[in-house]
# Entry
Amino acid sequence: MTITITRKRLLMSLVVIIAVWNLGQGSYILAKATLAQWLIASAWQQSTSAERSQIKPWPWADTWPVARLTMAEHNVDSYVLAGASGASLAFGPGYLFSSAMPTTKGNTIIAAHRDTHFSFLEQVQIGETISISNADGHVRDYIIKDMHIVDKSDVSWIDADNSPYQLTLVTCYPFNTLLTGGRLRYVVRAVYQGEVSA
# Structure
């Protein structure tokens, strides 16, 4: 009987240790994500008030904030990071280097994860406004024109519009799935309809 009680205590102690460990790991990840957002916001503030750009949020970062994306209707206010690698997408939406710089002429493409920074795309509607500002203080409002579901091999949407100023937001699809790495992408295209000064 003493052996059974000892085993039960040992098993309960092990369960408590595992639970505390998992709670600690979860808290660590949450604290790290919160700190990262604060550091990204600080880097953005420095880049908007300094003459130099590409201010990294932490010394070993391989990305930096290049724009700010807001959408009041969906309570969205995100810093867009340079590049769309897995490392940068873990902390925010990523700007694709092969596309036009935010607020400049051409098609600006921004990607993010469907279950974090671009989860709101599931609710956006045609006609809603997305605002982008760059580090120089230029702000451009884009009106959502359409949404499409495409195969990841289909890149025809990249140059599908003749609008001189276009914003394209891309994320994986479907939104509510536990599977990762699917073939489908959700593409939201928006165009600038204001007057453009040369």
Summary: Residues 61-192 form a domain with the Sortase; Chain: A; fold (CATH 2.40.260.10). Strands lie at 65-71, 76-82, 94-95, 106-111, 129-134, 139-151, 165-173, 184-192. Helices lie at 2-49, 86-89.
